[in-house]
Amino acid sequence: MAMNQVNLEEKMTGIPAALWRYKYGLILLVLFLIYPLVTPSIYHLSLLIEVFIFTVFAISYNLMLGYTGIISLGHALFFGMGGYVGGLLMVEADYPFLLIIPIIVLIAIALSVIIGFLTLRVRAIFFAMVTMAIATFFWIVAQRWTDMTGGDDGMGGIIPPDLLLPRENYYYFTLIFMVLAYLFFIRFVNSPTGRILEAIRENEERTRHLGYNVLNFKIIVIVIAGIMATLSGFFYTLSMRFLHPSYLDVDTTLDALLMTVIGGMGTITGPFIGAVVVKPLEHVMSTYTEHWLLIFGIIYVLIVLFLPKGLVPSLKDQADRLRLLGRKLLSKN
Amino acid sequence: MNSEYILETRQLDKYFGGLQALNKVDLTVKSGQLVSVIGPNGAGKTTLFNVISGNFHPDGGSVYFNGKDISRLSSSRLSQMGLARSFQITNIFDNLTVEENLRLAVQSRGASSFKMLTHYLSYSDYIDKASEISRVIGLEGKEKMIAKFLPHGDKRKLELGLVLALEPELLLLDEPTSGLSIEEIPSILEVIQRVKEDKNKTLILVEHKMDIVMKISDYIYVLHHGTIIAEGAPLEISENEQVQEAYLGGAV
User: Fold this and answer.
1) Across the interface, do B91 and A205 touch by the CB < 8 Å criterion?
2) Distance CA A37, CA A218 (A)
3) Cβ contact (<8 Å) for A206 and B85?
């Protein structure tokens, strides 16, 4: 019976079915849409902007780690590249916002294709190490090239275009950014290509023997993930109106990793849940203690140990178990 | 090259460190035949399959498929060309359903693998084909089961199904009956027999169970320490003294 239901929902197509399937997401979307009308708090809006942007960043990481099984230890590379290249083009070269976007997207594509071809054909660990090395290299450049980047002091004056200047407008802009990213994400992982990614994660050797060129599909994923992370970094920089080398450091990559694992690897809801949990917690904890990363380390270990599927899927499992138990008890009476 | 052979290996060598796993292996397979490769454990049978199917490249010699040198091609390329293999140790997508396992194999023969924005279920012919295959291999009604929860025998069937779904010209089957109980063997054999009856399909079989090999093979190669020590029709092989000594322990 339950199986038939799943079957039916899977086979339903068209707009009504899609609306029904994502009912919780839609309710949430409506709440987010009216939220700025209810509260005047700039702080809360800024926090939500950060959540929206990091959701997209986490989606990009989830596509690699959760769906394809590719580990990157330097995903901040793209985030920071988007921020620095975009920000510098804006401040130093006075490029318009709409021109910067295609430029950083093209750089992201080139960068991921090159890294992919160089590293993904060998062992998986090479990709992880090389991304980390390149991210660290750029981080050093951002630190040391003080004339250009302001070094560790960072660089301010990165102002969004007039239309996006009010906080509310920027809030809606990043909300749309997240929604578009989600729409793409959902379609993509349910496409024939997306299914191949899961096949690669499950059993790379067999996927190859089925006739799929695994390298091509991995490169497709890291290109898409690279573009998403780059845009997230640029929009984050515009939201902060500030550039800092920390956008390129390991903590930023760890943010994406944490969000993916906490929300649930290889799940649709995971990136959003991860961002909603991690970002506000970071803010709250950092006001109490400098060692908040340590606390995150502990949370991370606990989740990996006890909720290995991530917060939502594990809780769903528990709920299903309870429901089953309840049904059993009822049918006995 | 003789075009009457769908597969030909010439002087195939493969080393693992100091160990020579394959030693000047010459093997020819005619289209439409069922050829078996037998030999004791460690004789190099699986290595031979790994080299033919592109898992490893040979250290010497070449492999020809339909007259084309395929020694340096990748396994994904070979699979696309119509050369597919199964594995001795079950090698399926554990966490996907039976249907999705088969659907992925069917999809690789279609032209939609780079479609990134259409729903995978909208290609209903793939699903139809997948359920047809699951009927053929006797997994009907188990399509929605997660593969890792299948009993061992069903996993072996799925392993075979993944190869069938690719609709290859040449099938390399690495011990399709390994680990199966006596009751389960006939249903797998029946599937293999049915493939054999299709004149467009050629099979190479690695198998330990001699009664099966003798019954269904058209031709047999005997591999021992990486060298082919005998070849011939089943009857010749069972009467060959050298084979009996090396492999059958002196008696059949």
Assistant:
1) yes
2) 43
3) no
Cβ of B120 within 8 Å of Cβ of A3? The answer is no
Q: Does the CA dihedral B240-B241-B245-B249 come out positive or negative? A: positive
ipTM over 0.85: yes
Q: Encode pLDDT of B80-133 as tens digits.
A: 999 999 998 889 999 999 999 999 999 998 888 888 888 888 888 999 999 999
Q: Answer whether B100 touches A (CB < 8 Å).
A: yes
Q: What gap in Å lies between CA A317 and CA B85, rounded to an integer?
A: 37
pLDDT at position A14:
67
A190: chain B residues, CB-CB within 8 Å: 119-121
- Residue ranges of alpha helices (H) inside chain A are 2-11, 14-21, 23-38, 42-61, 76-91, 97-119, 124-144, 146-149, 167-189, 192-202, 204-209, 214-240, 250-263, 270-288, 292-306, 311-332
How confident is the model over B2-26, as pLDDT tens digits?
567 899 999 999 999 888 899 899 9
A22 touches chain B (CB under 8 A): no
The tokens for A94 are 């006075």
| Calpha distance B194→A20 (Å, rounded) | 46
User: Which among A10, A203, A211 has the least Cβ separation from residue B80?
Assistant: A211
